[in-house]
Write a structure and sequence with these properties.
It is built from seven helices and 19 strands. By secondary structure, it is α/β, with parallel strands linked by helices. It has a three-stranded mixed beta sheet with strand order 4-1-19, with helices on one face. A three-stranded mixed beta sheet has the order 7-8-9.
Length: 348
């Protein structure tokens, strides 16, 4: 039996990968890091503060990830963790040299669709070899009968990036490049965010990889920066949570216009460590749906919890204290690889 089998973001969860904060760091300040993550916040890439995150941040986060693993295990979910690696080790290609980032967000580099798991061609050079942290897990999935493929490795040359361009236009369309977190699964419909972490060619490659059973919907002018899971959050068939600062009547993806939407309330600013946060306060809506009536939500987001409960969802309140510092909430820091249920089309 294939251990990978997941068709959407809400069916009852059976197996998940939870990332690790061990060894997490900000990579060398190269053109990719500056263009994708920091352009507009610093004047030049030389100002990007590279190196290890503070030890306290990493230890507290690892403890909180362990609690998440324990709670999911209590719910009957199989939990897998990546191997620990030296993220300071150099990464070299004929075109550039850099060092690593972290293995905190398996959601970014691996995309599970149906019985297939895809290594995605991520936008940051520092994440070029990130899938090595999950190699043993991927081998197990392949042995179980799962389909395991990798997108073509991008060259990521300097001409791929334009840090001086407006947000949303800093990743050029020279080769397929996208992070897995640019994609949300709605059964046969796959939402694909065109942004600084996913280009048009990436959407085209993904459509070729998943085949005619799926429709990839490239979504433009939705959110210009990176990743989609703090912009649109599917909760169950026909119900989606949206970010009011980004989603409106004009840019709502067409295949979701028949769904009921609920608007995320104002979120608590949980703060961050260091000079600049790695993500906005909207990381508070980065929740993990365990089943259609249960979600893991940041315990500090009390108004969001009340809203979800009003719409018939129970909440497992946990905490990732440093989610703004490290750039990931409960959805980012996990990858669901098996949920019960079958492939369906959800049009209402």
């Amino acid at each position: 039996m294939s251990l990978v089998s997941v068709h959407n973001e809400w069916d009852p969860l059976e197996e998940i990968i939870v990332g690790t904060a061990v060894g997490a760091r900000v990579p060398r300040a190269d053109r990719s890091v500056f263009a994708v993550e920091y352009a507009g916040e610093y004047d030049s890439q030389d100002q990007v503060p590279s190196g290890l995150y503070p030890d306290r941040v990493l230890k507290e986060t690892e403890e909180e990830l362990h609690i998440l693993c324990e709670e999911l295990t209590k719910l009957g979910v199989t939990v897998r963790r990546p191997q620990q690696r030296d993220n300071s080790a150099p990464i070299t290609t004929p075109d550039w040299q850099t060092d690593g980032f972290h293995d905190y967000c398996p959601r970014d580099g691996l995309l599970s669709v149906g019985e297939t798991i895809i290594e995605t061609p991520m936008a940051l050079r520092a994440r070029f070899l990130e899938s090595l942290a999950y190699k043993d897990i991927l081998l197990d999935y392949f042995a179980s009968g799962s389909r395991w493929i990798s997108a073509p490795k991008p060259r990521l040359t300097d001409t791929m990036y334009e840090p001086t361009a407006p947000m949303g236009e800093r990743l050029r369309d020279q080769e397929p490049v996208f992070d897995a977190a640019n994609v949300l699964r709605f059964g046969t419909d796959l939402l694909y965010l065109v942004s600084d972490s996913g280009n048009e060619l990436g959407a085209k490659w993904l459509q070729s990889a998943v085949g005619d059973a799926y429709t990839v919907h490239p979504c433009r002018n939705l959110y210009a920066s990176t990743h989609v899971d703090s912009t649109i959050v599917p909760l169950r068939p026909g119900l989606v949570l949206v970010n009011p600062a980004r989603v409106n009547d004009d840019n709502m993806p067409g295949f979701l216009r028949s769904w009921q939407t609920i608007t995320c309330p104002e979120l608590v600013d949980i703060g961050f460590t260091g000079d600049k946060p790695h993500c906005s306060v909207w990381i508070g809506m980065n929740l993990l749906v365990v089943r259609p009536d249960l979600a893991v939500v940041d315990r500090r987001q009390t108004e969001l919890i009340k809203l979800l409960e009003k719409h018939g969802m129970d909440v497992l309140p946990l905490q990732l204290t440093h989610s703004r510092t490290l750039g990931g909430g409960f959805h980012c820091a996990t990858l669901d690889v098996r949920r019960s249920g079958a492939l369906e089309t959800y049009r209402f």
